[in-house]
UniProtKB/TrEMBL annotation:
Name under which the protein is recorded: ATP-binding cassette domain-containing protein
Organism listed in the record: Solirubrobacter deserti
InterPro entries: AAA+_ATPase (IPR003593), ABC_transp_ATP-bind (IPR050319), ABC_transporter-like_ATP-bd (IPR003439), ABC_transporter-like_CS (IPR017871), Oligopep_ABC_C (IPR013563), P-loop_NTPase (IPR027417)
Entry's family note: Belongs to the ABC transporter superfamily.
Any one GO molecular-function label of the UniProt entry: ATP binding
Transport recorded as keyword: yes
Domain (ABC transporter) ranges: 13-268
CDD domains linked to this entry: ABC_NikE_OppD_transporters
Pfam families found in the cross-reference section: ABC_tran (PF00005), oligo_HPY (PF08352)
Presence of keyword ATP-binding: yes
PROSITE patterns referenced in this protein's UniProt entry, alphabetically: ABC_TRANSPORTER_1 (PS00211), ABC_TRANSPORTER_2 (PS50893)
Annotated PANTHER family: D,D-DIPEPTIDE TRANSPORT ATP-BINDING PROTEIN DDPF-RELATED, TRANSPORT ATP-BINDING PROTEIN
Amino acid sequence: MSAPVATQTLIEVRDLNVHFAINASFKARVTGRGGATVKAVDGVSFDLHEGEVLGLVGESGSGKTTLGRALLGLVRPTSGSVKLRGEELVGLPERDLRPKRRHLQMVFQDPHASLNPGMTLQTALAHPLQIHKLTSGDAETQAKVRETLELVGLFPTQRFSDSFPSDLSGGQKQRAAIARAIITGPDLVVADEPVSMLDMSVRAKILDLMIDLKERIGLTYVYVTHDLASAKFFCDRVAIMYLGRIVEIGTVDEIFNEPKHPYTQALIRAIPEPDPDKALPRDLPRGEIPDAARPPLGCSFHPRCPKAFNICGWEARDLQTMLESRWMDLGEDRYGEERPLVGDFSKLKSTEHDAFLPAGSGKDPGELLALLEKIRAEEPDEPMWTGVKEMHAEAHGVRVTFEPGIDPPLYETGGAKAACLLYKPD
Ligand SMILES: Nc1ncnc2c1ncn2[C@@H]1O[C@H](COP(=O)(O)OP(=O)(O)OP(=O)(O)O)[C@@H](O)[C@H]1O
């Protein structure tokens, strides 16, 4: 889709944080001290314009759903600001938030779970109208329900208004869930993976319906998905999320034709190509998504990034990962030579930019230093080495000093904005 014409800002999000206490005692949760915290949404800012479709795209656990729910007040932010047409929503008591909910609606992934099996569509759709006192009297309510069923393509409306969810196909159920979301005349609909549980054959039809509704009744969408291909089809702009942050945001053209962040570039290369002749090698970033409760220093993506360089935030954990992944690929003999030189990784100590790697039991730290120098010479393309400033042997191991890392904000790139130090102005 083409970029939206400049319009008014509907939602303004500034430095939004949603942090969850995990594995914490009751006292730690109440006082906020002790225990671990997951930064599900971590300092997110963006504007959403009236009539646009913004995609929130990322791998599982990147914070898409939490961000979408926080926009609607369904999750209480830890701090930051969400304004609806200039009016602050964060911190509003529930009684003041409730009337706003008619303007802010959600469509969920599982249409089956989002409809009450014991209610006809007439009852289910009438409910929000009654709660928000949007109609006066049964006749008006019934007419509004029928009109909305027609809008979402469920006709003859008489038949569908008397149906129960179990009478409907998956696609019809999602149409009914959309009808319930739009019947209050919302401004913003957050659609969380609205087609991912549907048959392939109906996915495009539901997205087409949502586009059609946007034009006909003036909706703005936030579309939460892990599926870049559907975001390309459906969205005007896309925000790529990683460990609670937006790491790149731009128009669909910018993101798909000229992705700037190495993470976005890898995700786009990994989109399955239906035509086998054109298929590129799938190239997902190396390694696992890190533990959200212990995000990497500096740029959170740096341990997986093929383009990482000296200031990306190298630390002790990267040293361990480098050694372990090297040993996975080594033959028995060389593994047998190298492994005993390194001590217990649980004793790997680190301060912010400094790691102390213990030598193996009875081994000379000088031998360990020589091993690290040898690996560096053998694997000069391993990005971690760009961040190693100094290594020297000490009494019981080797001290490795890293370049101080920088946590990148979203930088201007001449296209999309990207949180990557490749675009840091000098
Ligand atoms: N209520 C909660 N309590 C603790 N941690 C949570 C809670 N909700 C989400 N999280 C954590 O926050 C992070 C972001 O989760 P979220 O569901 O928003 O990600 P997502 O990108 O939508 O993932 P998915 O595609 O799997 O739904 C994850 O690490 C998740 O485990």
